[in-house]
């Protein structure tokens, strides 16, 4: 990251747009529901959103998820 002068991933303009923008997370949430089915009352929604944002970050940085995904 040093070659761009950015010291933290959160300073990239693409980070907020890809990983934190509410509209992007909402669409990813619908994809999550398609793949995993509805969430239960025991699953706090903030944890699901955090999981989705983490997956978006991994896809953005490494261009893929784990072998099983």
Question: Explain this structure to me?
Answer:
There is one protein chain. By secondary structure, this protein is mostly helical. The protein has one domain (2-62). Helices cover 59% and strands 0% of the residues. It has helices at 13-20, 22-36, 45-62. Helix 1 crosses helix 3. The chain is elongated, with a radius of gyration of 14 Å. It starts with 12 loop residues before the first helix and ends in a 7-residue tail after the last helix. The mean pLDDT is 88.
List keywords for this structure.
69 residues; 3 helices; 0% strand
Summarize the structure.
The chain has 69 residues and is mainly α.
Number of strands: 0
Measured between the Cα atoms of the first and last residue, the distance is 27 Å
* Helix content estimate: 55-70%
Secondary-structure-based class equals: mainly alpha
Average pLDDT for all residues: 88
Order of helices and strands: HHH
**Large-scale geometry:** elongated
Low-confidence stretches: none
The number of helices is 3
Output the radius of gyration: 14 Å
> How is the main sheet built?
none
**Beta-strand percentage?**
under 5%
**Whole-number tally of structural domains:** 1
Secondary structure layout:
Elements lengths: L12 H8 L1 H15 L8 H18 L7
Helix pairs in contact: 1-3, 2-3
């Amino acid at each position: 990251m040093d070659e761009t002068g950015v010291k933290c991933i959160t300073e990239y303009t693409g980070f907020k747009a890809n990983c934190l923008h509410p509209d992007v997370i909402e669409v990813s949430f619908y994809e999550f529901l398609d793949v995993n089915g509805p969430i239960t009352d025991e699953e706090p929604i903030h944890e699901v959103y955090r999981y989705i944002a983490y997956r978006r970050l991994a896809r953005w940085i490494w261009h893929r998820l784990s072998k099983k995904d």
